[in-house]
Every structure is written in C-alpha cells, then in structure tokens.
Amino acid sequence: MYFSRYFFHLIVLSSIISIIATLSIENTHNDINQKSRQKVETTSVNKRSREQNEKFHTADEDHLPSTRTQTYLLTMLPVAKGDHLFNSGGEQEWEIQRDTDTQFAIYGENLNGAKLSFTTHPKSCQWERKDKIYELLVDEKDPHERMSERAYIHLNLPYYNSTLYMCLTPSNSNEVFHQGNRPALKIRVTRSALPVWATIICLICLLSLSGLFSGLNLGLMSLTPHDLVVIQEAGTPNDRKYAKKIFPVRKHGNFLLCTILLGNVLVNSTTTILLDTLISGGLAVAGATLAIVIFGEIIPQAICSRHGLKVGSQTILLTKFFMAATLPISYPLSKLLDIILGEEVGARYTRDQMSALLKHTQTTDIEDREKLIMTGVLSLKGKKIRDVMTNLIDVFMLEANRIVDDELVLNVHGYGYSRIPVYEGRRDNVIGLVNIRDFALLDTESGKFTVRNIMNFYKHRYGTAITPDDSSYDVFNLFKKEQYHLGVVVEYDNTSEKDPKAKAVGIITLEDIIEEMIQEEIIDETDVFTDNRRKVRNMLSQAPDFSAFIRTATNAVASKISAQMKVAVFQFLSTSVEPFRDKFISAHILSRLLNVDLYKEFEFDEDDAKSGKITYIYEYGKPVDYFVLIVNGKAELETGKEKIVSEIGSFSYFGVSALYNSDEKVDDLIRLKSNKFRPFIPDFSVRVSEDVQILRIRRVHWLAAVRATYFENRQTANGGTLMLNSDGEQIDLLTQELERADHVDPVIATGSVAGQDSVTGGSARDRTSSLAPTIASDGGNPFIEYEKISTQNPALVNISHTTKMSTESPNTSGRTTPTLTGKQKRQIFRSDASASPPSLTGGSSSKNRSLT
C-alpha cells in the first residue's frame, strides 16, 4: 500500500512540476522576446551613428543574397561537436542549444575577414539585428577546397524565441547583406523544457513506472484467474487477501495486458526523450537502454517473479488508474483480442505432466513421500493388471476336495492370508474362495468336511472377469462398486474352435492396487513375505509358526491331542506360566518342546476307585521333579489338614516350583554344570477322577529348553550364523540339549534313581538314539524308588523340611515345601546302588498307585 501511495504522489508531483515549468518557459519566452526587442531598440539608439554609416541590402525575391556583392554564403554544416539538430520536417533550420558551443563549417565566397551577424527579420538586417558578431577566417590549410571557401565558426548564442537569419558584411565594407531564407542558413536556438533537476526527478518517476509495468506484466499475467481462485481457497491468510484484491482486475486479462504494455511503452519512450535533453548523441541512447533494462526490466521482474502477488495487490489502485487513463485505447484493443483469440484459458496438464510437475516442485509443506503417493495415484490409470497382479505360481491355493484337518488349518494360519482361492483339478481352474475365519468353528477331528463344503456354505464373492490388460484404476473402481477385495485374473484360450475358455493366470487384490497408489509394499505384523514374487521373507514378521504342532508324534497319547489343543496349551503356557515365558524359553523352542512326547493319559476305573485303588498325579509328601498341566478331563485336588476336596479341570497346572525358584536367574540356570536332583514335595494331592490327559515336563527337560533358547539367542546375536556339527550339518539345539539331559547319569547328575534307566553293577547305560521313546517312557518312577528305599532305611524317616515357598497355581496352597538334604540323598543312593527297580504293575503292597 505504501508502495502505491509513493508512486501516486510521485506522479502527481511530476505533473505539477511539468505544468509549472511549461508556464515558466512561456513567460520566459515572452520576457526574453520583449527584452530582445528593447535591447535592439536600445542598441539601435546607441549605435545610431554606426548604423547611419552602414548600408543594408535585402535579399532578392528568390531569397538569395544580393547580386550586388561578391561576398556571400552558400551553406553551413555542423562539425561533430556540440548539440545540434536539423529540423527537416518543419522550417528546415538548424536547432542548437542555448549557451552551448556548437561548431559549424561555413562555405561561401570571399569570406576571409567578413563579419557574420544574426537577425530575426526574414528580409532585412536593418531591423531586429542581434549583438553577436563573428569574424570569419578562411581555412587556408585545406588544399581540397577549390570551388568555395570554408570558414569555421564556434557559435554560443543565447535563447531567442524566433528563427535567426544570417547577415554578412564583406571585409573593409559597411554594407550589410541579408543572406536570404535558405534552409541551411537558418538557426533556431532552443532550450530544455524542464530544468535539469525536474528532468532528473521525472526520469526517476518514469523508470519506476517502467519497472512497475514490467513487474506487473510478469507478476499478474503469470497468475491465471484459476490460480487466484485456488489461492483464495487454499493459500495462506496473506495470500488469500492479496488474491481477493487482484482477482476483479485479473478477470479482464486482455484489458489488463493492453494497459500494462501501453503504459510500459509510453514511459520507456518518454524516458528516452527526456534523457536525450540531458545527454545528447550515442550516450543518450546507451544510457536510456541501460537504465530501462536494469531498472525497468531486470530488477522488477526478479522481484515480481517471487513476490508478484503482494506487489500486485499493493499497487492495485495504481493499476486501476492506468486502466482508466488508457481506456480509450486499451479497452477496444482488449475487446478485439477477445473476439479474435477468445477468452483466456488457464494452464492445462496431462497426467504425465502433472506427475512431472509434482516430482520437480519444491515446497516446504509437501513431503517426498506425499509426492510419491500423488504420482502413484495419477499413474494408476495407465498401469495394467499384468504389472500388478500376483502370478498364479506364487499364489497359495487350496484344492477343493481336500479334507479339512489340523495340518491344513495350521498351514492356512501359518501363511497369514485372509482370503485363499480354491481350485479343482488344475491350479488354473479357480472355482471359489474361502476366508481364514471360515475354519474357526470346524471339527477337524471328524474328517467329514472338505474345502468345497466350506466354499459352498459361505459363497464369498470375488472378481471373475478381470483380464491382464485391464486398467488398475478400473479394477479399483470395480472392487469398490462390487464390494469385494480379491479378483481372479483370467486369459481366454482362443486356440480351439469352441467358445474361448477362461484360464486363471493370477490374482489381484485391493491391497495390490493400493500398494501401487502409495508406491510401497504394505506389510503388516503377520506377513510372512514382503514380496510374493521374489519370496523375500519378512524378518519382522510376528506370524506364529505352528508347523511343529502338526501330528508327528509316535506316542499314542500325544497323537490323541489335537493340533488346536497343542496351540492352546502353547499360548497358555507362554503367557500365563512364568517358567515358560520368553525370558526363559523362546516361542520357537517352546512350540517344539510341546510337540515332544511329554503327554500322559490316565483312564479312570470306577471299580478300582470303589475298592480304594486311587491313581495319583501328585501325592502329599512324596517328592517329584515335574510340572503338570491338565489338558483334558478332570481331577480332584485335596488340600489342608481337613483334606478339603475340590474339582479341577483343563488348564489347571501344578509344580512350578519343581522347575525353578523365583530367585533363580537365567544366567544361573545356564551356568549349572549338572542337573542336580532338586525335588518338589507337594503339600497337596491331585488324583484322577475321570479320564484325563496331562502334560508332564520334568526339570531336566525344562532346563534343556532354557539352554537351547540361550544358544539360539546367541546365534541370532551373531548375525544368524548357524551352529554346525562335525559333518557340516546344522545342529538342532533343542534335540541336542534334550539328548544330553536324557543321557545324564542319575546318581552323578540328578541324584535320583531312574528306575529302569539306573546304572547297576557300575556298568554304563545302554540308551536308544531315538528321542521320543526315551522321553515318553516312564522308565520307572524315581520317587516310588525313594519310597521303597526309605522303608528299608529307617534312618531316613526324619526328613528335614525347608522353608522355601514355591510358586504354584491358584489351585494350590501356600504351605512350606519339604525337600531332601544333599547328605540324605547321597545316603539313599549309596544304600540302594544295587537295588532292583520295582514294577508299577506287579508286587506293589500299597493300594495307592502314584503314576508319574
């Protein structure tokens, strides 16, 4: 706003100065003319005696010098010095600046010694003769002048408001001859219309206006009305205000253009004319060009190219003023342009041009990722489905007639796909679709359900008529309209004479198209692969691997436990039971441990129960070294002195203290050099009350899993370097640790008697290499052996109890747990080194059976 006010005041001031200067010039002209006449009269009075002696001769009728003299002038030409101009279009006279030295070459006859004077009278030198008299000296050094004589004269005349005619007085004569009205022998003395200071101010104003017009031409005309509308809706607060002020003027594009260009040409021309009054010749041209280019073009356009919106809004009043001032010329021209060229059209971009524009646009509030997403959306229409789809060879599919069992469910769950195509016969014959949630409520044990049954029941919709040449944009709209997320891409076989047959070549999902939009793979926490085509695995995948739970167990009891139940046991132990959390056993090791034959099944016999034969899982006061989780069935828990009996069911667990104490750390467990016998003496009893399946994990097996996890973590920390055996094969860490634990000498390592696995007569044990039967076999109960030996050693009746508290399940009490001292254990094993293991089924004098 201040900028426009400054220019407006400057223009008004210049106009006032011009008017005052013009009036002063006219008054000065009149005054000088009057003073000149008075001076002539005075001079005529003062020089009356001289004039009386002079004889004046007028020019003849042809305006030529008098024929009565041999002294006359032919012509005069300026020398390249001083300010002069020949007015060929008007009076055909020489124009020189007042009080300025100007050199002329005068040609004539008998000029040497002649005197040259001036008069404003067109016919006689007797009247209005001026005081300035010049004596002519012929240039004798110039040998080339043969036709006439040449004399040089330096003129420096005051301002006269009239044309000066020449009067010539021959040497040694008093006759004055008028040289006539010939074009080359007339002179007009001029002066500047404005003072120098006023001219400089006007030049500054004109250069400022030139710069303004040039800047507005770039700043305003580069912004289309469409651009201004966009800025008003989505620009910054200041830009919105500026655009709102400019828009009414910018709507009339051709009118504004004509006004700006007309004003620019006008001020540039005026600048050149004014500068010529200060500096003549080539300097005026060079100076005007330099000033207009620098101050009228380069600087303002550089400013307005960056701040054109602000400058245009601040000078909008000045622009409207010039539009009104040039209305008679610019408005008809603008209408003519509207008729010939039509209305102004804003910039138009193709998809590729828009993408390139976004790519190369430098902004502060649009990130590179946002630009990538926008270019991806713009390029979606040009992308074919064949470039986006997943090829059929890379698709996880199910055969329609396959039985739904545990293996299938776990495979589907392991891949992590939510929608799975179903084929019949050949993979390119896709007939339907199933969702992963369709398998949630199925009875996989019955073997009566096939994939076709599930597919026909749910009847999920999917795209069936998508071809590889379809546009990704069109398929995206199809997915939204039909409300499904997966389509089968088909090609038609036209080789046969029959109707073309569709053949599947791949699948396309809504996620695939969205990935093309955002130009990046969408990977969630359960994705196994980051790229289906190249099979690049997702190292951060949290998809659980349940492949270990597929039935491979040789033990009959373990084979009865369904894969779903094993998964449930795995999830329960890893989240609810402290010794099986990640800090002790990793999920990978735990899943494999639970698939080993560690399961037991007890059948309940009512007749035996009535006769007093009770099967115990835990018996009060009898030491054990295992943890038990009830998987299926029910049992009875007897606690307290009052022997309170409560019923317990699935996922009740006991014996956490048999595995570890709460003050033990992982490092301490890893550094154990031997699996010392550390029995857990329960202060409760758990007995079978119906058919029940349990998971029983001994401490040695749990420690083996802890060590396997430790070595697995070290292997991961070393960059995934695999541990190899002497044959160069990868070492199975869990199997290795379980075999070590299962082959430990019971006397030296565990301090327990392992029944059939015990060492008798100092001979080494003969162990089988198969892990499953070794672990699954009871091999005699070491704690029944302890009961047997204790009856034979009365000295061991007094067993000391420790005051350590065990971490038990909510179903157990919190009384202190009695444990054997090291001395008592060594005495037991020394005294029974040669004892034969008892049988569970034969010769037991006790009615109660403790099954471990």
UniProtKB/TrEMBL annotation:
<dbReference type="InterPro" id="IPR018490">
    <property type="entry name" value="cNMP-bd_dom_sf"/>
</dbReference>
<feature type="region of interest" description="Disordered">
    <location>
        <begin position="802"/>
        <end position="852"/>
    </location>
</feature>
<dbReference type="InterPro" id="IPR002550">
    <property type="entry name" value="CNNM"/>
</dbReference>
<feature type="domain" description="Cyclic nucleotide-binding">
    <location>
        <begin position="616"/>
        <end position="665"/>
    </location>
</feature>
<feature type="transmembrane region" description="Helical">
    <location>
        <begin position="278"/>
        <end position="299"/>
    </location>
</feature>
<dbReference type="InterPro" id="IPR044751">
    <property type="entry name" value="Ion_transp-like_CBS"/>
</dbReference>
<feature type="domain" description="CBS">
    <location>
        <begin position="455"/>
        <end position="525"/>
    </location>
</feature>
<dbReference type="InterPro" id="IPR000644">
    <property type="entry name" value="CBS_dom"/>
</dbReference>
<keyword id="KW-0677">Repeat</keyword>
<dbReference type="GO" id="GO:0022857">
    <property type="term" value="F:transmembrane transporter activity"/>
</dbReference>
<dbReference type="Pfam" id="PF25562">
    <property type="entry name" value="CNBH_CNNM2_C"/>
</dbReference>
<dbReference type="InterPro" id="IPR014710">
    <property type="entry name" value="RmlC-like_jellyroll"/>
</dbReference>
<feature type="compositionally biased region" description="Polar residues">
    <location>
        <begin position="802"/>
        <end position="822"/>
    </location>
</feature>
<comment type="similarity">
    <text>Belongs to the ACDP family.</text>
</comment>
<dbReference type="InterPro" id="IPR000595">
    <property type="entry name" value="cNMP-bd_dom"/>
</dbReference>
<keyword id="KW-0812">Transmembrane</keyword>
<dbReference type="InterPro" id="IPR045095">
    <property type="entry name" value="ACDP"/>
</dbReference>
<feature type="domain" description="CNNM transmembrane">
    <location>
        <begin position="192"/>
        <end position="371"/>
    </location>
</feature>
<feature type="region of interest" description="Disordered">
    <location>
        <begin position="752"/>
        <end position="776"/>
    </location>
</feature>
<dbReference type="GO" id="GO:0010960">
    <property type="term" value="P:magnesium ion homeostasis"/>
</dbReference>
<dbReference type="GO" id="GO:0005886">
    <property type="term" value="C:plasma membrane"/>
</dbReference>
<protein>
    <recommendedName>
        <fullName>Metal transporter CNNM4</fullName>
    </recommendedName>
</protein>
<feature type="compositionally biased region" description="Polar residues">
    <location>
        <begin position="833"/>
        <end position="852"/>
    </location>
</feature>
<keyword id="KW-1133">Transmembrane helix</keyword>
<keyword id="KW-0129">CBS domain</keyword>
<dbReference type="Pfam" id="PF00571">
    <property type="entry name" value="CBS"/>
</dbReference>
<dbReference type="Pfam" id="PF01595">
    <property type="entry name" value="CNNM"/>
</dbReference>
<feature type="transmembrane region" description="Helical">
    <location>
        <begin position="194"/>
        <end position="216"/>
    </location>
</feature>
<feature type="transmembrane region" description="Helical">
    <location>
        <begin position="6"/>
        <end position="25"/>
    </location>
</feature>
<feature type="region of interest" description="Disordered">
    <location>
        <begin position="33"/>
        <end position="61"/>
    </location>
</feature>
<feature type="compositionally biased region" description="Basic and acidic residues">
    <location>
        <begin position="48"/>
        <end position="61"/>
    </location>
</feature>
<keyword id="KW-0472">Membrane</keyword>
<dbReference type="InterPro" id="IPR046342">
    <property type="entry name" value="CBS_dom_sf"/>
</dbReference>
